[in-house]
Amino acid sequence: MESASVSVGHAEHEHHGPPEANQSSRIDRQTLGILLFIITEAMLFGAFFSSYFFIRVVANDGPWPPDGFELPVSVAFVNTLILVASSFTMHWALESIRAGNHRGLKLGLVSTLMLGTTFLFIQINEYIHIGFSARDGAFGSIFYGLTGLHGAHVYVGLTLLAIASVRAFRGHYGPDGKDHLGVEVPGIYWHFVDVMWVIVFTVVYVL
């Protein structure tokens, strides 16, 4: 009788289905997920950069940019400074909530959101006044492809920051453990967006 009850108890605790996923104690699943996502996005940008250098080095015999194309380097440089500054405000927001400073978190997120929006506005304004379109030759296509791809990532980042800001004003974050992952994960993505723009600016506007 006792052995039967033991076997029934064992059957009740028996695990069915696939084994539970192993989770490292060094990194949580959300952070790992955004890091893996960033790796795939870096590969996407790499494909565009490969196309850019192919067009510039292999398929182009004249000056670069080709005649008839003039890039607003000074405007793009100011925009770069704006986006780099947004990385510092994002870092300020994360460090503030880690220290339990909710006011600093809110100010940091709102500042980052405003700087990112300003960057996107200037980028769109540049498209309006630049004087060529994506249909104007290979250079026009790759220019809009690279900068437009980055602009799309900025838009996604701003959406994540807007969600984080709303949650911050509702008091959803705290300094302990995983209470601020909703700030840290968008912050990692935003830093990636900033780094990619510095590379895009250097390759497209400077070199």
Main sheet, how many strands, which sense, barrel? none
Shape: elongated
Give the fraction of residues assigned to helices: over 70%
CA radius of gyration: 24 Å
The stretches of 5 or more residues where confidence is low (pLDDT under 50) are: 1-12
CATH class: Mainly Alpha
Topology as a string of helices (H) and strands (E): HHHHHH
Structure summary:
The protein has helices at 2-13, 29-58, 73-98, 102-129, 137-169, 181-206. The protein is mainly alpha-helical.
Notes on the protein architecture:
The N and C termini lie far apart (83 Å). By secondary structure, this protein is an all-alpha fold. Helix 2 packs parallel to helix 6 (181-206), helix 3 runs antiparallel to helix 4 and helix 3 runs antiparallel to helix 6 (181-206). The protein is elongated, with a radius of gyration of 24 Å. It contains six helices and no strands. It has helices at 2-13, 29-58, 73-98, 102-129, 137-169, 181-206. Helices cover 75% and strands 0% of the residues. It has a single domain (27-63, 74-206), classed as Cytochrome c oxidase, subunit III, four-helix bundle (Four Helix Bundle (Hemerythrin (Met), subunit A), Up-down Bundle), CATH 1.20.120.
